[in-house]
Design a protein that fits this description.
Mean pLDDT is 88; it is low at 1-32. The strands form 5 sheets. Strands 3, 4, 5, 6, 7, 10, 11, 12, 13, 14 and 15 form an 11-stranded antiparallel sheet that branches. A 5-stranded antiparallel sheet has the order 1-25-18-22-21, covered by helices on one side. A 5-stranded antiparallel sheet has the order 2-17-23-19-20, with no helix packed on it. The protein has helices spanning 182-189, 200-206, 274-278, 355-358, 389-396, and strands at 38-40, 46-51, 63-70, 74-82, 98-113, 119-125, 152-157, 165-167, 170-172, 175-180, 210-214, 223-227, 235-242, 245-253, 260-267, 287-291, 296-301, 311-321, 339-344, 350-351, 371-374, 380-387, 405-409, 418-422, 434-441. It has 5 helices and 25 strands. It is mostly beta strands. It has 2 domains: 6-56 and 269-441; 63-258, no CATH class. The radius of gyration is 25 Å and the shape is elongated.
């Protein structure tokens, strides 16, 4: 399992975007500082598409939900496991409480794909415990057992139909609201101050949490919901009354004090990338596929790098370009605003490269921002550039072993964005992936 520490990559938010000049290598041609430098953009790049194993799935800024289909990237399934907590320990109702309704309410964070697409979501009560220890790391292939019968559902709805609402003079953001069984609410209300309501630990032992999952028996749709599960507006709300009162509420938060885990799985059968994945040993792909949600990523190797001999790397940029828009879903599914180029380690895991941090100290910017470029003929290209000079120097100096590079969307564990890129095997067209390299020969 790939233990990729995504919290470190938040540093990338401080980095500047890529330069927007169209001339390949223009910004790499040496100036007065590198009079003896050599520039090349013809070094061999071998590329292929590989599956991602798993990614960090806990403490995310947004959680993805839904069953989506894409002619290029096949089917993907995203579900959410979450704890439910007490807002106050030692709750006592004094009178007998009678449930009126139960609603799970989670605000929307974003949407990917067709916002008018219909979704079919069911909610289940967990039977497995989610360990709340901060030392426990959960990944996107983690599962927890749940009761087989759903305790709530919302079928055939689109997020475009939901709007903000006001309750108790508080305005809440547009949210996915799902009615749950009143029997669940009555069972919660029947708990006691010295029992399940005594503390959050006692409540967690009584109510282990929820599974929120798409029902694929209704098929797959062209979109994915992004939910702000850790928001202070995420609640399981029990509406109730007592013999002496009406319209009371018990709010049980799903916020940042709870543990929430995002689960993803993919089925590429029958999709356009199935063939690219069927030959994992091949490094001759003319197209490279990158997808979030622990889907697929690009791998790059530089088989002729050591042929340069002993050199000083002045500047080095991996340049990638979105392949020409020729698939029906390309206009519907947005490409990433940010991508990252990282290293593979000896086990094939994701590993940081020093260039990701060097730009903070005045070194060449790492890059990775999406840049849209239009040439003199009116042709438009979507490109990303990454500085990898420090990593290449370590490899050339044999201070690091070269296991290749990976291309991922960012943050890949929180976004569904995907992109089709030109690979290294494209005969030098404008979509070919390349390394723009300026170096000085050393004696």
């Amino acid at each position: 399992m790939k233990r990729f520490a995504y919290f470190m990559l938040l540093i990338l938010g401080a980095l500047q975007g890529c330069r927007d000049d169209l001339s390949i290598g223009k910004n790499l041609i040496p100036g007065s500082d590198y009079l003896n430098a050599i520039f090349t953009d013809t070094l061999t790049l071998k590329t292929k598409t590989v599956r991602e194993d798993s990614l960090s799935a806990r403490d995310l800024s947004q959680y993805l939900l839904g069953a989506s289909i894409d002619e290029v990237f096949g089917k993907s399934y995203s579900a959410i496991y979450t704890q439910v907590r007490l807002s106050t320990a030692g709750i006592s109702f004094n009178d007998t409480a009678f449930v009126d309704s139960v609603v799970l309410s989670i605000p929307y964070a974003t949407y990917y794909g067709d916002k008018n697409a219909f979704h079919f979501i069911r909610v289940y009560r967990l039977t497995d415990t989610i360990n709340a220890s901060s030392d426990i790391k959960y990944f996107s292939n983690q599962t927890f057992s749940a009761e087989p019968v759903a305790i709530g559902q919302r079928l055939h709805f689109s997020t475009s139909a939901d709007s903000s609402f006001t309750e108790d003079n508080v305005t809440y953001s547009p949210a996915m609201r799902i009615r749950l069984d009143t029997a669940l609410g009555q069972d919660v209300l029947n708990q006691t101050p010295d029992g399940a309501f005594k503390s959050n630990t006692d409540f967690k032992n009584y109510f282990k949490g929820l599974l929120i999952a798409p029902d694929t028996s209704f098929g797959f749709t062209k979109g994915k919901i992004g939910l702000n599960v850790r928001s202070d507006q995420s609640f399981l709300v029990v509406y109730y009354h007592t013999p002496n009162t009406t319209s009371k509420k018990l709010r049980l938060p799903l916020n940042s004090n709870a543990v929430n885990v995002n689960y993803h799985k993919h089925n590429y059968n029958g999709s356009l990338i199935a063939q690219a994945l069927s030959s994992p040993s091949s490094f001759s792909d003319s197209l490279v596929y990158v997808q979030g949600m622990a889907g697929v990523k690009g791998k790059i190797t530089l088989p002729t790098l050591q042929n340069l001999g002993r050199v000083l790397v002045n500047k080095a940029e991996i340049e990638i370009t979105r392949a020409v828009n020729k698939f029906a879903d390309d206009s519907l599914f947005a490409v990433p605003e940010q991508m990252i180029c990282i290293a593979a380690d000896s086990n094939g895991n994701n590993a940081f490269i020093p260039d990701q941090l060097l730009s903070l100290s005045g070194q060449p910017e790492y890059g990775g921002k999406k840049v849209t470029i239009t040439d003199a003929l009116g042709h438009t290209y979507v490109r990303y550039r990454f500085s990898i000079a420090a990593q290449l120097q370590l490899i050339i100096d044999q201070k690091k072993t070269d296991y290749g590079f990976y291309l991922l969307s960012f943050p890949s564990n929180q976004l569904a964005n995907r992109i089709v890129l030109g690979g290294g095997n494209r005969s030098g067209d404008n979509y070919q992936m390349k390394l723009n390299l300026a170096y000085t020969k050393l004696k």
